[in-house]
Design goal:
Elements lengths: L4 H10 L3 E9 L3 E8 L18 H13 L14 E7 L17 H22 L12 E3 L7 E4 L8 E5 L4
Antiparallel strand pairs: 1-2, 1-4, 2-3, 5-6
Length: about 170
């Protein structure tokens, strides 16, 4: 795969997938800041409608095909493609446990967490989701490769580990 690393890490420079509508999502393992592919909503200056025809799903497909062409087996962690940044992991159940001795989730504590997530999501929708033809505020969209390209890493990658092999070209 080493001969394709440059192509992969620089790929978003010429294939710009725009993601919008940030929202917190969660499962039993983590909380993430998730985005959905843009579909011509509130286009930034200099971006033509045709640019949003190339989506995050196209980017994932193309990068998968380039990687697969090297003979490497790809095993996705998620069945459904997701554009997200993990912001919190549930390492233990201590914060929602009924007590120190009982790890059974305390439903009022769980509900309090979910209520907070929903409050944050309401604020994200209000502040950063496109309204009519208004611009999206800074932080409300993410164009993959903006500022820096993809980061190819090796080693144990979860929880911020590993080492950068090559950082792609950003724009």
């Amino acid at each position: 795969m080493s001969d394709k690393i440059r192509e992969i890490t620089d790929y978003p420079f010429a294939h710009r997938a725009r993601l919008i509508k940030p929202m917190l999502s969660y499962d039993t393992a983590a909380i993430a800041l998730s985005f959905v592919p843009a579909a011509n909503e509130a286009l930034p200056d200099g971006r033509h409608e045709s640019a949003d025809a190339y989506t995050y799903h196209h980017l994932r497909r193309d990068l998968y095909e380039i990687s697969k062409s090297t003979g490497v087996e790809i095993a996705s962690r998620y069945v459904v493609p997701s554009a997200h940044l993990t912001i919190a992991r549930f390492v233990t159940q201590a914060d929602i446990a009924a007590s120190e001795d009982d790890e059974t989730p305390d439903l009022p504590k769980v509900q309090k967490l979910l209520d907070q997530i929903e409050k944050i999501n309401a604020d994200l929708r209000n502040r950063y989701w496109p309204k009519d033809d208004e611009r999206i505020l800074a932080g409300g969209e993410w164009i993959v490769g903006q500022e820096k390209g993809l980061d190819c890493r090796k080693g144990t990658l979860w929880y911020g580990g590993g080492q950068t092999i090559r950082l792609g070209k950003g724009f």
